[in-house]
Amino acid sequence: MYRVWNFLTNYSLLLIIGALTALVWANIDADSYHHFVEYTLWDHAPIGHAHDGHRTLTLHYLVNDVLMAFFFGIAAKEVWEAVVLKDGSLRGKKAATPLFATLGGMLGPIAIYLGMASLFGSTTYDAVANGWAIPTATDIAFSYLVGRLVFGAGHPAVRFLLLLAIADDAAGLIILAIFYPSGELALEWLVMSFAAAAIVFVLANWLPRRLDRHKQDRPNSTWVRRRLGVLPYAIAGCFSWYGFMASGLHPSLGLLPIVATIPHADRAFGIFADAEKYLTDLLNRIEHGLKNPVEIILFFFGLLNAGVELGSIGDATWLVLAGLLVGKPLGIFVMGWIAARPLGLGIPEGMRIVDLVVIGCVAAIGFTVSLFFASAAFDPGPTQDAAKMGALFSFAAAVLALVSGKLLRVQKHPG
Prior knowledge:
The chain is mainly alpha-helical. Helix content is 66%, strand content 3%. The chain has helices at residues 2-11, 13-28, 30-37, 59-84, 96-119, 122-128, 140-151, 156-179, 190-211, 219-228, 231-247, 256-259, 282-305, 315-340, 355-363, 367-377, 382-393, 396-407; strands spanning 40-45, 49-51, 54-58. A 3-stranded antiparallel β-sheet has the order 1-3-2.
């Protein structure tokens, strides 16, 4: 229990406190809560919600569209290392079955969500159809926590779950970029984002290394690292973020092009591994530096997004829950079985096929990213609130995972 509490305080406690505070506040005084959420920080601002020919920076926009870019930047860092490093977790045959399971964990919820919505009638379908991505999300921190409780820290299913969650994050970033633009598309502005990434990569990364060829003391790279540090990437990040905002794509993704340009180590130990803190490359130093600020950002994210009245339960609530609690386990099990057995890709040693069902239940905790998708998919109102209730209720998947682990006789492997 000490390890569980330590994990919660390191990764999720502030988010939970923010969400619970929002729930209580919204159900005691909904008007004051919504006034707080949409509080205007700067009217006629250079950034913010576009309306009536100008932009307005609200507290909600500051958190969801500006500050959450750091959260998605950290997620992108994990995905990037998993893909580009020689021993990256999403490379090679070892990643094949988790990737198939990830695909199932997205197609299953979408099929359940849209299939049930169509049964509710065309009026309901039209109102909720845009929320199809909400149940595809997996909250990586809470899923990892529950996975360790169900399987034990040393069980190969926990590693499998992390691979699945990282791949799910990658797919979620793509979905958010393509299907949930924040405004009218003007994709020519993306030239600014990718130009900023290209320039900072050449000037602060490639060129110093090029000049240091055959020089063991690497004077140019050392000068850039010690004198400039993160500054060039911070400046490039501002330009990239602005390009995403002006392009109409969701600006919370604005740091993604810059993540790929930052010097990184030739190894990674995994998102929650203690050994990660011993890596001193710039990308890991930035991640370590952002950890505490991002925890505070997640507190405000929970505070500004989880405040829904309990009477908001509606069709979207049940659709999101069905997608997560039924579609996720079903999709992960079916596609994982197809990959492992008919396609012969196998599963990790020490893991059973039936463990895929339990992994699917664990991965059904959508929470953080599901809340974010609900805010992106629907305008503020009853449908958005109902969908958010489904994201909040997805914690029921933790109970489902614990029960299914008992019924399917999961043998815990202590770390």
